Amino acid sequence: MQLDVVSDTVCPWCYIGKKRLDQALAMQGGNGITLAWRPFQLDASIPEGGVDRKVYMEKKFGAERAKEVGNTIRTFGEAVGIDFHFDRIERSPNTLDSHRLIRWAGTAGRQNEIVDILFRLYFEDGEDIGQHGVLAEAASEGGMDADIVRDLLSTDADKELIRREDGQARQMGIQGVPSFVINSQWVMVGAQEPETLVKMFNKLLAREAEDAVTAR
Fold first, then answer.
1. Contact (Cβ atoms closer than 8 angstroms) between residue 47 and residue 14
2. DSSP classification of residue 190
3. pTM score, two decimals?
4. In the chain, what percentage of residues exceed pLDDT 70?
5. Buried residues in 35-72 as b, exposed as e (16+ CB within 10 A)
């Protein structure tokens, strides 16, 4: 079973969704599931270098609403072991380069680890994951060659591919993240509870097994 998780690296619900997915895979055993992370930019209009996060969030939600949203997310985060520190985040970055790193991590077999590192760096440590130096450090922590990543980031390598994948997700009807796409056919939107994910995984895996027997 192919499981594609469509997400953005500055989406707090995607971080929560990843923690719940990790729990679900641990419960299910991960048997028969191939996992890949796919790009979705919540705001591709953010310029290179990012923007002031406080100004950005207040413009988007309003000061009071932004505070309420942050408090709600912290509560859900605590339940899965995330220590959100929105006060440490100074910049809202353009996430294109972080998605490039995630793509390259897939080639290195380190995608899930890099996704987790990027979420932690941004939401807990307040690092600017739009900066190439931060991304190179994340690559190194995740077991990748930081020098190669740094060289690739200095080029336009895979930028258009990331934009194309983002566009394909939207063509599928995906408008919010995280979204879990199973075998390119079924889509579950939102940070699903682990039990819900396990139930869906087992149901579809059983269906695949039945189809395999029928095809013999």
1. no
2. S
3. 0.96
4. 100
5. bebbbbbeeeebeeebbebbebbeeeeeeeebeebbee
